[in-house]
Specification:
This is VanZ family protein. 64% of the residues lie in helices and 7% in strands. It has 137 residues and is mainly α. 26% of the residues are buried.
């Protein structure tokens, strides 16, 4: 089976993507979150809205970190472990920053959801490594 070939953006742009995603997460984690309590449940009424936001945000952050690391000299396993740990570590740091803030909440459950988002991002990268060839232009 042939793999889909897609050009890889330059390193600076990939790093800029990580900084932008992390900055947006950081901003909305410290200041008023999207929805500001107006929405209580996420899609399908299965999980709270804040849980969905955490899952989407940290899957996105993990995806951007994985993309920034793609093609490095490190092994795929090392890239994926780094992606997971960097994403989850950022989520833990954000929770620690939120702890003293009066309008924010420190929650171990959020850290677990952040880890799940990081793991989903790694899972997507594992699939991409199998079916897609990202190459430098």
């Amino acid at each position: 089976m042939s793999r889909l070939r897609i050009p890889l953006l330059p390193d600076r742009l990939r790093l800029a993507g990580v900084v932008i995603v992390a900055s947006v997460i950081g901003y909305y984690s410290v200041f008023a979150p999207p929805g500001s309590g107006a929405i209580e449940m996420g899609p399908f009424g299965m999980l709270p809205y804040s849980t969905w936001l955490h899952l989407m945000a940290y899957t996105g952050l993990g995806g951007s970190i994985g993309y920034a690391l793609y093609g490095r000299s490190a092994s795929i396993a090392t890239q994926n472990v780094t992606t997971f740990l960097a994403t989850w570590g950022y989520g833990i740091a954000i929770e620690v920053v939120q702890r003293p803030l009066p309008d924010r909440t420190f929650a171990v459950v959020d850290m677990a959801v952040n880890a799940l988002g990081a793991a989903l991002a790694v899972g997507v990268w594992l699939l991409l490594h199998r079916y897609v060839d990202l190459h430098e232009v």
